[in-house]
Design a protein that fits this description.
A four-stranded mixed beta sheet has the order 3-2-1-16. A three-stranded mixed beta sheet has the order 4-5-6, covered by helices on one side. A three-stranded mixed beta sheet has the order 7-8-9. It has one domain: L-arginine/glycine Amidinotransferase, Chain A, CATH 3.75.10.10. It has eleven helices and 16 strands. It is an alpha/beta fold.
């Protein structure tokens, strides 16, 4: 039985900091660096009024100078920097996963291998150790570098339940030849969880992550799950997302009750210059102190509908839209760019 005094907090647990791994010219962002920098500045502006920000960058002095012209002195005081070389910017998947325990936070460092060796990740896989060396966070460092796990692939309700997808955790080049049962046992042990809910359906065209849960279905307070729903029978996602919804309806809380389900609209199709559909999703929101940062995609009606639905899940929170059209060009969105740390870790 996992130690109930050690747990993976829900994202709505009071936060001390949020990590942003900043884009730079030696990443795939180079062709649209100005636009993506604008998106990161918008995230930093919104976050700095609510939580400390840790910016990871190989060139922190340059980022600091940029932010000095954009943020107030007070906001700048809520930002610290970790100097580290980086391959890319997806902090959700290379950042620490933080447990809380009687003896303080535990900073879990898992192996990040570019979503199953699809992309270079040697530098990003070292970021957690760089942060530990620079004493950026408070807590006990735990190496789990023999196990591939991305933060975007798991959701925690803070009460011992982990939500994930079988497509991702069982995908090639992650943790083979481990079986599903072996992976589950290892996760329960490392995350001190009581059970795992496996989603077997759901996908987004253009997704590089093999169906990260944070693109499809998200835990919210009070036994609520917000999830992507497709209403168009002619859309390529319709069948898979309908099957996902059916499975979500079958899930039960540990008390045996059905979850409160809140459907999020399917984002209007966005394509890259080659005509490939991109994985735009409103499920990729970030919960932080008193606010939910929600990705928007330039479709006013659907953006508004998503905001209205998220407000139902977070009635006392501010829902703040961030234009994520630059992010989606590289097949990610807002939650993918961020990693939160509980207040105890700062």
């Amino acid at each position: 039985m996992p130690d109930s005094l050690t747990f993976l907090p829900a994202e709505w647990h009071e936060q001390g900091a949020v990590q942003l791994t900043w884009p730079h010219s030696n990443t795939d962002w180079r062709p649209i660096l100005e636009a993506v920098n604008r998106c990161y500045i918008d995230m930093a502006k919104t976050l700095s009024t609510r939580v400390h920000i840790i910016i990871v960058s190989p060139e922190p002095a340059h980022i600091r100078q940029t932010l000095q012209t954009e943020l107030s002195v007070r906001s700048l005081s809520h930002i610290s920097f970790c100097k580290a070389p980086t391959n890319d910017t997806w902090a959700r998947d290379h950042g620490f996963i933080t447990l809380l325990a009687n003896d303080g936070p535990h900073l879990l460092d898992f192996k990040f291998n570019g979503w199953g060796e699809k992309f270079p990740a040697n530098l990003d896989n070292e970021i957690c150790r760089r942060m530990a060396e620079q004493n950026i966070l408070k807590g006990t460092y735990e190496s789990h570098l023999d196990f591939v796990l991305e933060g975007g692939s798991i959701e925690s309700d803070g009460k011992g339940t982990i939500l994930t997808t079988s497509q991702c955790l069982l995908a090639p080049h992650r943790n083979q030849p481990m079986t599903k049962e072996q992976i589950e046992a290892r996760l329960l042990d490392m995350l001190h969880a009581k059970r795992i809910l496996w989603l077997d359906h759901g996908y987004l065209a253009g997704d590089d992550t093999d169906c990260h849960i944070d693109t499809l279905a998200r835990f919210c307070p009070d036994d609520t799950i917000a999830y992507v729903k497709c209403l168009d029978p002619n859309d390529e996602h319709y069948v898979e997302l309908a099957q996902m919804e059916a499975q979500l309806k079958e899930f039960r809380t540990m008390e045996g009750k059905p979850y409160r389900l809140i459907p999020l609209p399917m984002a209007k199709a966005i394509y890259d210059e080659d005509g490939t559909r991109l994985p735009a999703t409103y499920a990729n929101f970030l919960i932080t102190n008193g606010a939910v940062l929600m990705p928007t995609y330039g479709d006013e009606a659907t953006d508004l509908k998503a905001k209205e639905q998220l407000q139902k899940a977070f009635p006392t929170y501010d829902i703040v839209g961030i234009d994520c059209r630059p992010l989606i060009i590289q097949h990610g969105s807002l939650h993918c760019c961020t990693m939160q740390f509980p207040k105890e870790a700062l």
